[in-house]
């Protein structure tokens, strides 16, 4: 790429003096030399201790342990530990409600269901077992909503609009770090079914 036509400032940001194109992508190189795009530089989390983390890697690791998790947004920039907002997968949540004979398959009803919460807590714990200690999700909250592609929270390609979500859910994010946590905030290894 030679640059942006008629936009020298934009070109200077993207292409350096040596001709290297700076895409803003974070990549990983495997043992065979293959490159994989793992995240965007602007999305990296830098915690209070200065550790750089890819939220996409954390989110995908946890999501792999439960089809109930449709979308997840890890929060931890400038914080002592990571937390997450969890949004249920609409189809998997509906199937879960039918399988467990739940009369209400709305996002708000399912976000408060103890059996579903235990399943999500187990998935977060299983994902955490594959992550380094600093990357682990210490608390999470299931949001009582389903996010749709092209809506406020997701692009049409299902990427989380992180800044917008952080603004829209600022209260819920603050509650993830509150001491003591509210009843809507859960910890992956400490969740127990209420008797």
From TrEMBL:
It comes from the Bacteria. It holds the Pfam family AMP-binding_C_3. Keywords: Fatty acid metabolism, Ligase, Lipid metabolism. The keyword Ligase applies. GO terms for molecular function: long-chain fatty acid-CoA ligase activity. GO terms for cellular component: membrane. PANTHER family: AMP-DEPENDENT SYNTHETASE_LIGASE DOMAIN-CONTAINING PROTEIN, LONG-CHAIN-FATTY-ACID--COA LIGASE. Belongs to the ATP-dependent AMP-binding enzyme family. This is Acyl-CoA synthetase. The lineage of its organism: Bacteria, Bacillati, Actinomycetota, Actinomycetes, Mycobacteriales.
């Amino acid at each position: 790429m030679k640059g942006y036509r008629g936009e020298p400032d934009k070109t200077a940001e993207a292409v350096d003096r040596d001709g290297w194109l700076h895409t803003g992508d974070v990549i990983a190189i495997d043992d065979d030399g293959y490159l994989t795009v793992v995240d965007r530089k602007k999305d990296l989390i830098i915690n209070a201790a200065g550790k750089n983390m890819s939220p996409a890697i954390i989110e995908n690791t946890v999501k792999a342990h439960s089809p109930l998790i449709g979308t997840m947004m890890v929060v931890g920039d400038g914080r002592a530990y990571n937390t997450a907002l969890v949004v249920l997968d609409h189809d998997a949540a509906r199937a879960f409600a039918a399988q467990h004979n739940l009369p209400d398959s709305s996002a708000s009803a399912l976000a408060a269901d103890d059996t579903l919460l235990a399943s999500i807590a187990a998935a977060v714990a299983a994902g955490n077992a594959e992550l380094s200690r600093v990357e682990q999700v210490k608390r999470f909250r299931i949001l009582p909503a389903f996010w749709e592609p092209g809506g406020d929270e997701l692009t049409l390609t299902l990427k989380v609009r992180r800044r917008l979500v952080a603004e829209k859910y600022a209260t819920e994010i603050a509650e993830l770090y509150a001491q003591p946590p509210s009843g809507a905030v859960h910890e992956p290894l400490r969740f127990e079914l209420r008797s």
